[in-house]
Amino acid sequence: MSTQTQSPATASNAVSLFSKTLDRMKPQMALALPKHMSVDRFARLALTAFSTNKDLQACRPDSILASLMTATQLGLEPGINGQGYLIPYKGTCTFVPGWKGLVDLVARSGRATVWTGAVYQGDRFEYQLGDEPFCRHKPEDGDGEFTHVYAIGRVKDAQMPVIEVWTRGKVRKHLNQYNKVGGRHYALQSESNFEMYARKVALLQVLKYMPSSIELSNAIAVSHAAEAGQSAVIEGDFVTVSNENTDPETGEIKGRDTQLPPYPQETFDQNLPNWKAAVESGRTTPDNLIVMVSTKGVLTEQMKQAMRDLAKPADVTDVQPKGEAPNQIPDDDAPPF
Question: CB under 8 Å to 236, separation ≥6 — which residues?
Answer without folding.
Answer: 274, 275, 277, 278, 283, 284, 289
